[in-house]
Amino acid sequence: MGRYREVAALLRFLQLEPESDDLRSRLIVQKVVYIAQSCFGIDLGYKFKWYSRGPYSRALGREFGKVVKSLKEGLEVTEVAPSVVHLQDFLRELWRVAGRVDKSEALEIAASLIMLCRDIYPPVKDPVSELMRRKSFLKRDVVESIWGVVKRFGCCSQEGAC
Amino acid sequence: MNGLPEGMRGVKRVYDEIHGYIELTKPEIDIVDTPTFQRLRYIKQLASAWYVYPGATHTRFSHSLGVMHIMGIMATKLYREGYIYSKDDVQLLRIVALLHDVGHTPFSHAIEPYYSSVNPPLTHEELTKLIVLRDPYIRSAIEDNGFDPWSVVAILEGRHREPLFNQLLSGDLDVDRMDYLLRDALHTGVTYGAIDVHRIIATITVDREGSLAVAEKGLEALENFYLARLHMYRAVYYHKSIVGYELLVRIIYEKLMESYRDNVLASRLATVQGVRKLVEEGKIFFWHDSWFLGLMVEALEDPSVDNEVKELIRAFLFRRGYKVIVDYSRFSDDELEEDDEEVMKLRILSDKLRRYVGGDRSNVMVFIDDIPIITVEEAIRVAMDDGSSISAYNHPRSLIKFMPRRFHVKRLYVLSSVHRKALQFTKLMQV
């Protein structure tokens, strides 16, 4: 199975299927895949770089159309690994603490905090302050709540959540 | 514009055909003067494109200097405007730009798949990282000047703490592309590949999210940049004959690495582990286009080398390489499907054609690629007067959204020696 089909299956199970070919949908796909790979050991083989809107994989961006097509073709998801269920728990918790914040924004904050604490060089001591320094328009209490979820799920240890 | 902020001085000037005088600081001179960096003088920027465009003999060396120079101009501008906080960071960015291609193999992208398709793979990006961290000359040149090789690697890998640094080196509108489009357009003579780099730099800024953006007044220069890229992909980077010669070099390299062990250096380069060891010993300075051309000539005279390999070498050296027999290439907005009808057709046809013309499998080759020209979320942003920004793809007055997003290359190649026979076959098959 091509890795983009695995991405499609993951999105279907998590009920995060892209609604259209717009920036928001693309952002959701990017951040979910980053969190799945870095925090839940779901290896889809994408490499991510650190940009102003958080982790981004060029290869994944270029396969977005294939992901959408796989979903339209009626991909069935019958069984998932325990790590995917664990990711689902993480997302439920994320939506809960994020309150009225849009899902794409909550995912962007979570993925950015995870990347800041795991992959960035020179290392960052305080991911929350680092993110707030860059994005002063974000609400600090929302960022701190999301940071709480990230820590609770063990996303900042090198072993990840699994 | 000398690409250095006030208080930073160059210790040497080099004349460049694109940018005029390029200033080099002491850390940069120390890097350039290493045997490992000098290797880039012998690696042509466009591999064997000089078989089609005779002027395209420029090298990775001049391109690397050019990228460093543009990075210096961009970073100095952003430093003056307060988006980059220190002169040391400007110097760090210039060093990274200088080194960004130091891991290219001979004949650049033609030979890279030999190493990137094995397990564990070694791409030119990974080789660049290895050289920065383990090559004794390069590592010393960085450290002795007070810079951290890991910071260089972090920017090369796009995971430096400052996302702006990552974007400057590897984004939709990055310093690498700005130099190679200009340089390749000049040397090939493909004038519609030229870009207005000064206008782009003059209008570049940073939006409130921290992303690079171009002011609205630079929109035309930005459109021209995307158009130039599109033209260069078609006219140069994926030109049918240039791709044909790259395929040929790739096959010859594979065959020589697999079977030709008489040459001491070639035998060490046959594996990823061998390359890694050579890097650590500081001995990759010889690994360039001229070395490989010499190896081909040596193999041609060696009685132990297969006649079929010799035929391929002659085809390369005497410009009797691959010719396109069927070409379904086109622009598209969609990604190329795995089960694309035309791709399947080419594969079936290639099997039949191989049986018809006989001889080595490499007589007939299929070349398929799906090249992204514009990816929606990667498109550079346009800064609006109120401080917000919008993707250039969505700007109401932008031409960019009307450009094709991808270029699908779908071709069937045959070696010149079997071209006539292959033509008879395609007539019979009514292709």
Core attributes:
heterodimer, A: 162 residues, mainly alpha, two-stranded antiparallel sheet, globular, B: 431 residues, alpha+beta, Hypothetical protein af1432, four-stranded mixed β-sheet, four-stranded antiparallel β-sheet, 19 helices, 48% helix
Can you walk through the features of this model?
Chain A is mainly α and 162 residues long. Chain A has one domain. Chain A has eight helices and two strands. Chain A has helices at 3-14, 23-40, 58-62, 64-72, 82-98, 103-118, 127-134, 140-152; strands spanning 49-51, 54-56. In chain A, strands 1-2 form a two-stranded antiparallel ribbon. In chain A, a hairpin with a 2-residue loop joins strand 1 (49-51) and strand 2 (54-56). In chain B, strands 3-4-8-9 form a four-stranded mixed beta sheet. Chain B is globular and about 65 Å long. The interface between A and B is medium-sized, with 30 and 29 residues.
Fraction of residues in helix of chain B: 40-55%
Distance between the termini of chain A: 23 Å
CATH topology of the domain at 12-240 in chain B: the name is Hypothetical protein af1432
Major interchain interface with per-chain residue totals:
A-B, 30 and 29 residues
Let me know the number of strands of chain A.
2
Q: Note poorly predicted spans of chain B.
A: none
What is the molecular shape of chain A?
A: globular
Mean pLDDT across every amino acid position of chain B: 95
Please report the first level of CATH classification, the CATH class of the domain at 12-240 in chain B: Mainly Alpha
Bulk shape of chain B = globular
Radius of gyration of chain B, rounded? 23 Å
Number of strands of chain B: 10
- CATH architecture identity of the domain at 12-240 in chain B: Orthogonal Bundle
